[in-house]
Design brief:
- The protein is α+β, with helices and mostly antiparallel strands.
- The chain folds into two domains: about 120 residues, MutM-like, N-terminal (N-terminal domain of MutM-like DNA repair proteins), CATH 3.20.190; about 130 residues, Helicase, Ruva Protein, domain 3.
- About 30% of the residues lie in helices and about 20% in strands.
- It contains eight helices and ten strands.
- A four-stranded antiparallel beta sheet has the order 1-6-7-5. Strands 2-3-4-8 form a four-stranded antiparallel beta sheet, with helices on both faces.
- Strand 6 and strand 7 form a beta hairpin.
- Helix 1 crosses helix 7.
- The two termini are about 30 Å apart.
Length: about 270
């Protein structure tokens, strides 16, 4: 599932492509039955909160998109090709077209419904209006492991499996540590690092978490070969040597997802 940096990157692109002018909105597949409510309207803004994308077309006309596990966007310059496959939503603007396939949610919401949805989400490290104290309030009183809390979108919005594993490694925190055992200075460092890492993700379009001194060009190791791209310390590296200490990376299921950590760099 795409993590928050991907949705913010998409919001920036859609803002650039479509904002300020009427947009043709259709559903070649036919399943986005609300498309007619915004078809031909001017896109006011595109924004993201966590893993949710919003296209605002004016009062009470907000297209809400959650990509889920299978949702994808494709785009290009006009003229658009004939729709291929199950295109849930097609946007056509002044110079660009964009197709959406396979999302978990694609619907038109009222402003009140958007507010209610966002109220259920935790602070998003990539939003200027994020309040890290809200995340701290949940984490500091919870007996749940910090690895599970980081994936809870009501605690922090936008963090997924990759950022979860990499953040804990970078701060030498074992995944089983309870939220209540995280000290406030540590939380402040975690939040600041999330903001920095996810901002890099928006600009580069991939997740890079490895510090300069551990990069392939600094250590002589081979670059990572993975469809997710980017240089990471432990994510999807089970059984491989830790890039820092050489200990084999471990993995286990947490919140129905595979988590990864180094038992030496992140002692229990």
């Amino acid at each position: 599932m795409p993590e928050g940096h991907t949705l913010h990157r998409l919001a920036r692109l859609h803002q650039e492509f479509y904002a300020g002018a009427p947009v043709r909105v259709t559903s070649p597949q036919g399943r986005f039955t609300d498309a007619s409510l915004v078809d031909g309207q001017v896109l006011d803004h595109a924004e993201a909160h966590g893993k949710h994308l919003f296209h605002g077309y004016g009062p009470d006309r907000v297209v809400h998109i959650h990509l889920g596990l299978y949702g994808t966007f494709t785009d290009g310059e006009l003229p658009p090709p004939d729709p291929v496959g199950q295109v849930r939503m097609r946007l056509i603007g002044r110079t660009q077209w964009t197709d959406l396939r396979g999302p978990t949610r694609c619907e038109v919401l009222t402003d009140a419904e958007v507010d209610a949805l966002r109220a259920r989400l935790g602070p998003d490290p990539l939003r200027a209006d994020a309040d890290p104290d809200r995340g701290w309030a949940r984490i500091s009183r919870s007996r749940t492991s910090v690895a599970v809390l980081l994936m809870d979108q009501s605690v922090i919005a936008g963090v997924g499996n990759v950022y979860r594993a990499e953040l804990l490694f970078r701060h030498h925190i074992h995944p089983s540590v309870a939220g209540k055992d995280i000290a406030r200075p540590c939380w402040d460092e975690l939040w600041a690092d999330l903001v920095a890492l996810m901002t890099i993700g928006v600009h580069r379009g991939r997740i890079d978490t490895v510090r300069d001194e551990d990069l392939p060009e600094a250590t002589g190791r081979a670059p990572r070969q993975d469809r997710h791209g980017g240089e990471v310390y432990v994510y999807r590296r089970a059984g491989l040597p830790c890039l820092v200490c050489g200990t084999p990376v471990l993995t286990e299921k947490l919140s129905a997802r595979n988590n990864f950590w180094c038992p030496t760099c992140q002692p229990a």
